[in-house]
Input
Amino acid sequence: MKTRAAVAFEARKPLEIVEVDLEGPKAGEVLVEIMATGICHTDAYTLDGFDSEGIFPSILGHEGAGIVREVGEGVTSVRADDHVIPLYTPECRQCKMCLSGKTNLCSAIRETQGKGLMPDGTSRFSYKGEAIFHYMGCSTFSNFTVLPEIAVAKIRDDAPFKTSCYVGCGVTTGVGAVVNTAKVKPGDNVVVFGLGGIGLNVIQGARMAGADRIVGVDINADKEEWGRKFGMTDFVNPRSVGNVVETLVNMLDGGADYSFDCTGNVEVMRQALECCHKGWGTSIIIGVAEAGKEIATRPFQLVTGRNWRGTAFGGAKGRTDVPKIVDWYMNGKIEIDPMITHVLSLEDINKAFDLMHAGESIRSVVVY
Ligand code: NAD
Ligand code: AHE
Ligand code: ZN
Output
């Protein structure tokens, strides 16, 4: 079939909207009509050439929601007309990782996914006879896409696509980092670095978990108002204080119980670790750093009881947890609507990247 898609032909070039060819689902795969997709900073990072796994030409996008239109041979867990969210972290429920009970990082298809291919080692997308690579196993910047059955979460039919697509990455990553990875408890003090599409979800996750102080840190002063809407109690602009770490340690009587990096900047990751309370404070890295970047701190920071951890997709097991997070949204336990600041057509998708880089959007969503 033909489908409209925004193709990244090269790094650092605007996406081009073209009609591409899409092969139907093979055994164990499903064809999904994407109804809406968010634009996450990770899409921009890959387009800007910072991803060591970045591969072109490809169809980016990993934060979508849509409807199953066709299923391949042997598919049993979903059927045509089911509403689904594509999963860049699938859940096969059979691999060592899934069965460990210790991680959400399913290993069933990770190798081919990282090469922009489906599990059989081929691509379903092509343009003028040349293969176009998949991205993060999702490629939601295409109106139709093919996914392995293990990489879709079935969600309730009454959840709007325009907002529930955000559960495909940002909401789950931020809220999940708090509840699954850090396991923040009532009364804990939390610091969140970077109040964008991910950081604001960490803030609302911390509010839901009953955190006491929730301190937001951002170099963009406009983010103070945004943070306060979702439960932030204090704001620090690193450009207005001498030493961010000292400021935070003094504010929180020794430091944070949990801190979260939602910037992808390795200098900020160091600040996030060092603002943690001696003896127990844990810093969670969410931000994705540019290829070649490394984190550093004095080992003494760890010797004296601070912990450094990371999280992907908020530690969520996609097929199990994503439908529950959609329920949380539909039941009013978490908010999504106010964070969708811009709704665009596919033709205008490049504007979403401009808005993100200018710090003017929280989430832009393309509705097909
Ligand atoms: P975003 O662009 O919406 O937000 C980033 C925020 O960080 C902005 O508000 C910006 O002003 C702020 N910031 C930048 N430099 C800063 C600094 N030096 N100090 C304090 N604040 C600073 O991006 P996003 O969509 O929220 O994504 C955030 C990061 O999370 C990205 O690196 C993205 O790739 C990553 N991410 C990781 C996962 C995961 O599973 N681990 C999932 C989604 C996104
Ligand atoms: N491909 C990069 C790393 C990118 C990365 O860390 N991605 C996160 C999700 S970001 C979503 O917005 C992730 O899930 N990581 C775990 C994984 O298996 O990819 C690189 O450095 O090579
Ligand atoms: Zn993302």
Remarks:
- The radius of gyration is 20 Å.
- The chain is about 25% helix and 25% strand.
